[in-house]
Structure formats: C-alpha cells, structure tokens
Predict the structure.
Amino acid sequence: MLELQHINYAVADKEILKDVNLVIDDRFVAVTGPNGSGKSTLLKIVMGMIAPTSGKILLDGVDITNMPINERANLGVSFAFQQPVRFKGLRVKDLLELASGKNYSFNKACSILSEVGLCAKDYIFRELDDTLSGGEMKRIEIAMTAARGSKLSLFDEPEAGIDLWSFKSLIHIFENLYEKTAGSIVIISHQERILAIADKIIYLKDGRVEQYAPRDEVLTRLNVMSPGCAILDEKGEKAERAAKSVRPLKRKEG
C-alpha cells in the first residue's frame, strides 16, 4: 500500500503539488488531468527522482520519504518513462536479467516477452538502440517490469509517441500485466481506453487532487464537466460508451 501524506512540491515561487493526500491499495490506478497539473511530478516523487518540499511517503507502512532511488527499487518500486532509455551495447536479455536479478534461459525470456507480444528469438539478443521502434521499446520496458515482479509499478504516459496499432496492443498488454502481477500499477494517461480499465482514477488539477474514486464515477464527472469535448476513442465513440463496453478485469486471487 502506498500512502502520501500532505505532499507539497514547489520550484522557486511556483507550487507544483499542493497538499496531496492519497492512499493507493488498488491493483490498477490511473492518474489523469490537464497538462501541467503535476502528474509526472507526483510519480517522480514516489520513485525518489525528486524530493517533496514537505510531506511524507509510506510504502506498506515504511517511511521512504528520504530513501534514494536504489533503495526504493529494492523495496519493489519501478518506474517507466514516457520515452524509454536506450542503451547501446545492452541486449534485451541483459536488461531482463538486470531487472530480475536472475539468469534467464531462452524459454524464460520467451515466456516474459510473449506476454508483451514479442517473440524471443527475434528480440532476446537485440541491442536496446535506435533500431528498435518506440512501440518495441515500450513493450520491452513493460517486460522488464514484469520480470522484476514489482510491488509498485509506475508508468508515465506509456502511450506517448506510439502509433495506433501499437496503442491497441498496449491496452491488451496492460490487461495481461494486471492479471499476472500481484502488485499495484499506477499509470499516468489521458487516453480513455486506459482509464476505462483502471480500478480507480486520480484526477489532478492545478496540483491538487480534485477527485480520487472508482473509475466510473470519475469518467462520469469528466464527461459532465466537458460534454462537448469528451475524450473520443479511435472509432469516435464517447468515453462513457467505451467504459461500459470494456470487460472488467479479473482480480488475481491471493
């Protein structure tokens, strides 16, 4: 369980986050809101990339506010960037082994990569360089998260910079990750197709938590607030219609 208590963050005289209080213990939580509302800053504070101006962060009751990134990672916190980092000379197999702390056989790598729609024989020895597309890098980064078995997985707009086909596949990948991961997933997104598979949604505006509630409540409010510009999916259906059509995800027992 992640708990944020009175989190504030300011740069010079500008307040980015204002008295954020959250308790996150659901399996899949989406964070959304207008640009500049503090979404990425919030996740970076949880990961330890930046320190809050004030407030406290607890993970399963342990105060991690002043812990460095590596110690948070050892506790099971992982972070996926909008644009995955490329490492020339580092292979996909190397990345999976670094993430899991174990040696990976071909069959094990195949199992992990197949969960994100990649064939091991085509990718296991590929370098993480510019020959990989944005969509391929996103999938590999998600596979790395699955290999870690993270207690808390943080994703900053994973749909950014990928094409429509890759985005459709990304939805199925997160559905699969949800079913097979015991930990919590927190994902920043503006896309209703992703919001529609969340258990709960955090709506941030001007650095404050405007609403944190079950998915349908937040989507209904967003559509009421902006009835003339509701988020549309690629077929032109409104967000509420898509939310109703998405099959609820099955919770993992135990």
Notes: Confidence is low (pLDDT under 50) at residues 228-248. DSSP finds ten helices and twelve strands in the chain. The first strand starts at residue 2 and ends at 11. The first helix runs from residue 39 to 47.
